[in-house]
Amino acid sequence: MAVTTRRPTAHKEPLTLSLVDVEPDMLELAGGKAVNLGILLRAGFRVPPGTCVTTAAYTRVVGDLLQPLVEELAAAAPGSPVQDQLAAEARELVLTAPIARDVVDAVRMSVSGPVAVRSSATAEDLPFASFAGQQDTYLNVVGADAVVDAVRRCWASLWTGRAVAYRAANGIDHAGVRLAVVIEDMVEAEVAGVMFTANPVTGRRGEAVIDASPGLGEAVVSGAVNPDQFHVDVAGSRVLHRRLGEKLVSVRAVPGGGVEQVRDARTDACLSDRQVRELAALGAEVEAVYGAPQDTEWALDRKGRFWFTQTRPITTLFPVPDGRGGARAFFSVNVAQGVYRPLTPAGIAALRAASTSVARLWGIDVRDPLAGAPAVCAAADRLFVDVTAPLRNKVGRALLPRVMDVMEARSATVLRALGEDPRFTLVPMSWADSLRPLTGVAIASRLPLRLVQSLVDPESAHRKADDLGTGLRRRLEPPPHATPAQRLEHVMGLLPREFAPLALELLPRGGAGFVALALAAWLLGDQRRPGELSTVLRSLPDNITTEMDLDLWQLAQDIRQDPVSAALVRLTPPEELAERFHAHTLPAPVDRGLRGFLAWYGDRAVAEIDLGLPRWSEDPTYLFGVLAGYLTLDDPSSAPDAVFERGRREAEEMVETLAERVGGLRGRLVRTALERSRALAGMRELPKFYLVTMLAAARRELLAIGEDLRARGLLAAADDVFFLDLREVQASLAGAQHQDLVEERRADYERELRRRQVPRVLLSDGTEPEAVAAPPAVEDGSLHGIPASAGSVTGVATVVLDPHRARLEPGRILVCPSTDPGWTPLFLTAGGLVMEMGGANSHGAVVAREYGIPAVVGVRNATDAIRTDDELTVDGTSGTVWIPSGR
Fold first, then answer.
1. Reduced to 3 DSSP states, what percent helix, strand and coil does the chain have, rounded to the nearest 5?
2. CA distance 566 to 361
3. Phi, psi (5° rounding) for residue 779?
């Protein structure tokens, strides 16, 4: 159920409301807790009767008293001592402010018998932020004066350090938050606790998780007791799992007011299976009322009746993509591409449209080219692919995990495990029928022929790739003097048409290099040692991404030759340098050099698969930060070009070593295969590069359209266009107003930027399979992943979650969730790499090998287990990372 934020005009705002009269659109008057309790009451659930002391009462007491402190809090650094001190001052002001007589009288009239006094903030129990435990609750409050005091302390709890920090972390304005208070009759609870109507750890919907303990629920909520826990399959009304806690204490009401902890030695279950099933069924009814999984607090009275004392959305669950019915498995495109952040609506729309060309290649009917392949879907502003069909196909089940092994090994593990899930059993089908789609694509695209041609004549493969890029750039240009409508028509035709045919031309040419490597591995048999073949792949020629990094390094060296330019780049904030770049006021070595770099690489960016994000040609701030880091590297032997050249020599020497080791005809075949591998494997980056080139061209057209819509008053800013999909842009050109929609989507996008956990694979019941699996073993201070680049290095870690402001000092070990090509300039000064996602052939692994950086990828929870400034040893041959123990 949606909760809106109508705020009544000041002269109509009552000081108190009966809970049953609190309606869903009264968030600004009653706060989240009271709104949710009002919904439950009107839906017929047992909720203790009570009153809401509205935010009008809070405003009467606080008024503008806190305004100066609130302004200072907005400027204070999150988590700083200054923030804590300001919060303490604000809290003290509320605790000492006089309370108007009419407010006191209104509160006193709400009291009859023992009550619970609970905070209900306007930024609380929201779909995106629960604020659980951030404000105070007082139980078994007896007497009118005690209730008035508890209400005041609830108001003051809006300014505890934890509440202030939580608001800052969730981007909620302190000045816009007010606090109401709920006064509920106490339930004489025999047993109480918490129930999640979906599993908050695994994400599985329809599995209720109940924590229960004797006495009041405060024992469970505060963590004072180890409660009984029950997992319930709601649809089947089955208790799936029970774990009985020690329940050494219970919280009980004290006659005359207050609560106390009482020693308790109860060892049996405090709820029977019948009661557990009844409670879970009630939870399902609550969830149905709200249309979303809920985190509830409940109590069981002496008569065996369940009461709900609170409910809020479970804000940590990842939304489930829309499927096509039945059990489905969704694979994250974002994670595979190293982009954990959300995509803009236009970015999602562009990739959906591009997927049309892929679907048509496989003979899949796509009725709406802009909607994309039926298997492509979105959730939480991230893109997913429904992989149910290949999982249930013999060939798909065999190939998909193997492809993931080299791209995203952790996903491969998850997909293999799903093969044992009875919901994903194979569809009865002969091998011939299973192979038919793959065979059809291979024949139609002449894939085997292109692969063989590339192996026979690598130079011809490179010439063909260059021709393909030239042709693409020509087709990307819109008609001369195109109108906004013609520009949009150009984009809407371009995106569903270009990508798959181009990728099929390029993939077998780069793929031939890895076929040659596999052939060499087969010829070598047991005569190859760990890490030797990855050494062969160091410093590959013709890799567009490593060429970009080395060109940026060369620009830094050119700047270094001019002391004035070098000092400017080292000492000036990157944001200021970017402004000067656009104003053409930088020294010539910087300005001329960067413009030359951007002429070829200006379409690239961090998270570049999202055309809604600026390209480096628009905003070179990140590049200036990287250049400043490069200028701190003074050791010539550690210079990236020197390292790259060393890697090339080591690779060529390894080719000779391996060929001579087996000798004879087999040795000559090994040499030829490895030379072909080096000549072709560097082309693996080209499909992605040209996809990004295509998206950047579409972005330029959409920006021009956005500027036209801004000039016509249909958008507030040109880049608002990226918060619309292509059909909505078309409607805007026809005069439709979408500014409210843009603002709503921008707010959603900003909230999604704060989401840390994005599942690799997500099931249609909400389960995140990785969360179900046992956590990785950490033995003797070690973490384990996939060997990605041979060698061992010991150094100091820098954990980087967002590369935009990161500066990696030379020799530091880069620890990150994932990378895309926009990250790789950081690799040039890195001493090693530890990455949470990826496989042996993922982007980060390939670039690390080419630079000769020891690397381990697919290391689960690396950015949590490792801290910046930890000393690490990274063994890229065994796939092991040693971290300090005992901290």
1. 50, 15, 35
2. 51
3. -115, 135
Task: Give the burial string for 536-571 (b: 16+ CB within 10 Å, else e).
Answer: bbbbbebbbbbebbbebbebbbbbbebeebbebbee
The torsion angle over the Cα atoms of residues 336, 338, 340 and 346, rounded to 10 degrees, is -80
Task: Return the CATH superfamily for domain 1-185.
Answer: ATP-grasp fold, A domain (3.30.1490.20)
CATH 3.30.470.20, applies to 187-317: yes
Long-range CB contacts (< 8 A, 24+ apart) of 286-291? 286/40, 286/45, 286/197, 286/311, 287/197, 287/198, 289/1, 289/39, 289/40, 289/43, 290/1, 290/36, 290/39, 291/1
225 vs 250: CA distance, rounded Å: 7
Phi, psi of 189, rounded to the nearest 5 degrees: -85, 125
Taking only the tens place, the pLDDT of each residue in 757-801 is 889 999 999 999 987 765 555 556 789 888 888 788 999 999 998
* Structure tokens, 133: 């435990």
User: pLDDT by residue (tens digit) across 525-564?
Assistant: 999 998 899 899 999 999 999 999 999 999 999 999 999 9
Residue for token pair 């207050």: 258
- What are the tens digits of pLDDT across the range 448-474? 888 999 999 999 999 999 999 999 999
- Rounded Cα–Cα distance for residues 609 and 382 (Å): 12
329-332 vs 294-301, strand pairing mode:
unpaired
Parallel/antiparallel/unpaired status of strands 832-835 and 813-816: parallel
Active site residue 584: no
Is residue 296 helix, strand or coil? strand
Residue 328 has, within 13 A of its CA and on its CB side, a CA count of 18
Residue type, 154: C
Burial (0-12, 13-18, 19+ Cβ within 10 Å), 98: exposed
**CATH superfamily name and code, 774-882:** Phosphohistidine domain (3.50.30.10)
Sign, CA torsion 756/761/764/766: negative
Tokens of 289: 């009322």
Structural domain boundaries of the chain?
1-185, 187-317, 323-444+756-773, 541-647, 774-882
Per DSSP, the chain holds a count of helices (H) and strands (E) of 32, 25
